[in-house]
Amino acid sequence: MTTKAKSKKTAKAKQTGSTPSSKAQKTKGASVKRAPGKKAAPKTAASPKKAPGKAPKKPGATRTPEAEAPARGDKKADSGDKKMPVAPIRSSPDKALVKFDPLQRYLAEISGYNLLTRERERELAIRVREYGDPDAALELVTSNLRLVVKIALEFQRVWMQNLLDLIQEGNIGLMQAVKKFDPYKGVKFSYYASFWIKAYILKFIMDNWRLVKIGTTQGQRKLFFKLKKEKQKLIDEGFDPKPKLLSDRLGVSEREIIDMDQRLDGWDVSLDAPLKNDSDTERIEFLSTESVSAEDRVAKKEMEGLLHEKIAEFRAQMSDRELDIFDNRIFSENPVTLQEIGDRYGISRERVRQVEKNVIKKMREYIRREIPDFEAYTEGVSSD
After folding, report:
1. What CA dihedral angle connects 92, 93, 98 and 103, to 10 degrees?
2. What pLDDT is attached to residue 313?
């Protein structure tokens, strides 16, 4: 065969995708025979062609999603790369884009409760009053939660702190209103409940306004919210807000006006705090009081009990005449005269006086001997 013919044959083989050497290899591979006593090697080249994207199916085995997962067109799975587990993303409240607001969350929750009609309100109130139905009471409370928020907002300018505290106290007043409401009087429940809600909110504000309560009576509670407002009103009208004028306007005593004005203008001061930063003297040391302290009352009671005990022992040492003079002259609220005692024992008045003086002297010496602190006690009593 000439060289020209060989080149034409090679070009034709390239176009058809086969070469003489490849045909020879196929023919050789198909005609290979197995030697006796040897196992045939796995035929990878002659294995049936599989459809792309499908895993080989084993006989008697069920196909699971986990087995099919790598063959679903996942390039990373086909290339042998393993997918790492992803940790859950946890957002911190400090790093959140929108800060969590419990008040807005509460308002969103109570907005889902529908308002009641007058007929439904009366029906629920009768069920609560007559049968104590807890489901009816719950519906009455939840449908009026927005009323509590509305009233609490009116007191926010006074409290100037967490509004949820006022809402919480108002909810307690709302539940109390459900217990006390009488549906047969023809009053709307929301109107009746508003008084209970305000009362509980007012009590909470006054109890927590300062460490020491500034108002306990009804008049003081009234002054707490109206005193400054009334004073400013009088100033705007050109009047001097004296306690007498404020008392006539508000219907309380002048003493209550003065006390409340002092409480509102001043703040709590600790009596145990020092007067200055570099001083050990406390404020309580400068407070004057006319009443006897508890320590002095206890000491006086103990001394009196001991004194009566020692006097009873001293009485046992006296004669009959001395004891008669002691009981009827020294320790008697209505003492008899010296002449009466002298006529009773046949002695003169002067002798009775001498015996009385001698009994008092012996008693003092005996008490001083038996009670060492008696002199200090008598000095304190005499100074008072």
Report:
1. 150
2. 87
